[in-house]
Amino acid sequence: MIGKMKNERMKNRLRRFLCKGACQVLPIICLCLCATGRGWSQETYRFAQRDTMALYLDIFRPDSGSVTTFEGVAKPAVMFVFGGGFVGGSRSDATARRWFDRLTAEGYTVVAIDYRLGMKGYRMGKGLLGANKALDRFLSSQQMGVEDVFSAVSFLALHPELGVSTDNLVISGSSAGAIISLASAHAIDQGLTEGLPEGFAFKGVMSFAGGIISKHGAPRFSHQPCPILLLHGTADKMVAYKHFGLMRRGIWGSDHIASDLEKKGFNYSIWRYEGLGHDVAAYMNVVWDVEKSFLEKNVMQGIPCQVDALVDDPSLPTWKAWGRARTADIYQNP
């Protein structure tokens, strides 16, 4: 217990030191913390400066002794984009950290990033009309997130000494982070790659309750994208499972994206969780077997496939406040 208290004091002093001066003068900040018990390490770097806002990323390395290859192929780094409705969230909240622990124990590197919260402070009008009027703000929030993802990728490419290869990078996100992840892959498909290293493409996408926001009609992939894993509750009222909006404006969810990819014979997997709401946005640790298979088979082995699974499993966890959440709960309530 005494050793643990000393360790906590040491970490607090280091944080205070970084906040007082080092964060302001170093273009790259490295923060390494070691905890007693199960060891973990974290490196934190500033990858962009947006006006008065600094954006950071954390790198979590594979555990010592973990297997970092599969069938002779290096395991990809997983870039995580947190959720929070574009109004809040954290790159390393408790749920995400438990998932990071699993990934690093399995030999994966994790890169958790910040992005700008474009809906923070916004109050949306009621009903479909209110949502439609707010669409421009949602679209701007999605685009800012994509820009920040591209900046993080560029930062890693410009700093090979960090040991995170952008040639082997999977992007994953929850809720708003899943929207940004899918929109990033779609932007690359459409040739909208400003800010990215030339020729860059993700090795895979894992979307937990995501979609793509558009005001020009349903988003479609023109070329074979990287393998895409879609996980979504069929009763999600926060991020539309199918489509929410008016005419050519709105958000198109996992059901639409899977349909587009299926028609074109592209490589994708969708897991539809029957009757579940936004709970699936927090399923990173719940469905590890699905993610593991996707990463090993589709990403690392490059085996193309189409999976369309409807899951009706009452034993899956649900959270009342989270699973039944609606868009209005975030943007209309004070």
Structural notes for this entry:
- The chain has a single domain, classed as Rossmann fold (3-Layer(aba) Sandwich), CATH 3.40.50.1820.
- It contains nine helices and 14 strands.
- It has helices at residues 2-25, 94-105, 127-133, 135-158, 176-189, 254-263, 288-300, 320-323, 327-331, and strands spanning 43-50, 53-60, 69-70, 73-74, 77-81, 110-113, 169-174, 204-208, 211-214, 228-233, 243-246, 249-253, 268-273, 306-311.
- It has a nine-stranded mixed sheet, with helices on both faces.
- α4 crosses α5 (176-189).
Write a concise keyword list for the protein shown above:
334 residues, alpha/beta, nine-stranded mixed sheet, Rossmann fold, 9 helices, 34% helix
Q: Quick recap of the structure?
A:
The protein has 334 residues and is of the alpha/beta class.
Give the CATH topology.
Rossmann fold
The count of strands amounts to 14
Shape annotation: globular
Q: Average the pLDDT over all residues and give the rounded result.
A: 88
Helix % is: 25-40%
What is the N-to-C order of secondary-structure elements (H for helix, E for strand)?
HEEEEEHEHHEHEEEEEHEHEHH
What proportion of the residues form beta strands (DSSP E)?
A: 15-25%
**CATH-level-2 architecture:** 3-Layer(aba) Sandwich
How are strands sequenced across the largest beta sheet?
A: 1-2-6-5-7-8-10-13-14
Q: Uncertain segments of ≥5 residues (pLDDT<50)? A: 1-27, 30-39
What's the CATH C level? Answer: Alpha Beta
> How many separate structural domains?
1
Structural class, from secondary structure content?
alpha/beta
**Rg estimate, integer Å:** 20 Å
Count of separate DSSP helical elements: 9
| CA-CA gap between termini | 43 Å
Largest sheet: 9 strands, mixed
CATH superfamily: Alpha/Beta hydrolase fold, catalytic domain
